[in-house]
Amino acid sequence: MSTSVSAPPSLARRIAVGALTGFALLGAAHAAPVVFDAPPFQGSAADPNDGIRTIFGGNERFLPSFDFSQDSFVFDAAAFGLPPTLSFASSTAAALSPLGAKVVVLQDIDNDANPATPFNAGTAANQIAAALTEDLAGFFIYSNSVLGVNRLVFSTNLNSNTADLAILARILSPSGADAQAALPGFTADNFGVQGVPEPGTAALLAAGMFAMAWRRRQAAAPRRD
Ligand SMILES: [Ca+2]
Ligand SMILES: [Ca+2]
């Protein structure tokens, strides 16, 4: 009885210290990713086949800030029709590979050498489309000159200046010139895919079932020797 009186505080303290240390480590290494798991045009009347660009902002997320060292955008593979990994390019439109990338961080902040005219999602999409030569659905980050913030956009086809655009998020801070200056900070590590079925698991399962069926057939077949 006397031993159990002193033991609980010590144990509780150790658990508390351990938990705090664990949380501190987790906090330093992984912030919660910003997950997009709904179809990008959910709730929109956008028609992918009408040849008219719809810019849909109905599901836009407003993010207070974005820490390049630990924050990330994570897209659901099924909702966006994505491969397990996303190709990445951070570039001006002029320097962009004609094949593009699944994620383009557009470094242009003006398209007509006139800072007084707006640079918005449509302008950014046009800059990218003009640089590409092959159809490719994907994402881009651009700096909106009117709102003064960086935004994340999904395009049904980065190669088309009439493809529908879904504005997914805006980063509220930094803003203005600081937002533009922050564009080169994005790396491939800030973008990920979740929910990709593991082909290895499915293949293994299929192989196992095939083997079992084959054995049963062998066992059932009359011997011919
Ligand atoms: Ca359309
Ligand atoms: Ca302009």
Structural features, described:
- With about 220 residues, the chain is α/β, with parallel strands linked by helices.
- The protein has one domain.
- It contains five helices and ten strands, in the order αββββαββαβββαβα.
- The chain has helices at about 1-30, 75-80, 120-130, 175-180, 200-220, and strands spanning about 35, 55, 60-65, 75, 90, 105, 140-145, 150-155, 165-170, 190-195.
- The strands form two sheets. Strands 2, 3, 5, 6, 7, 8 and 9 form a seven-stranded mixed beta sheet that branches.
- The longest helix has 28 residues, at about 1-30.
- The protein is elongated and about 80 Å long.
- The model is unreliable at about 1-10 and about 15-30 (pLDDT under 50).
- One calcium ion binds near residues 111 and 119.
What is the β-strand count?
10
Which regions contain 5 or more consecutive residues with pLDDT less than 50? Answer: 1-9, 14-29
Counting copies of identical and different chains, the oligomeric state is single chain
What percentage of the residues does DSSP assign to strands (E)?
15-25%
Termini Cα gap = 77 Å
Helix segment count?
A: 5
Q: Outline, from the CA principal axes?
A: elongated
What's the helix-strand series?
HEEEEHEEHEEEHEH
Radius of gyration: 25 Å
- Percentage of residues assigned to helices: 25-40%
Main beta-sheet strand count, sense and barrel state: 7 strands, mixed
Mean pLDDT: 85
Unique ligands? calcium ion
- Class from helix and strand fractions: alpha/beta
Number of self-contained structural domains: 1
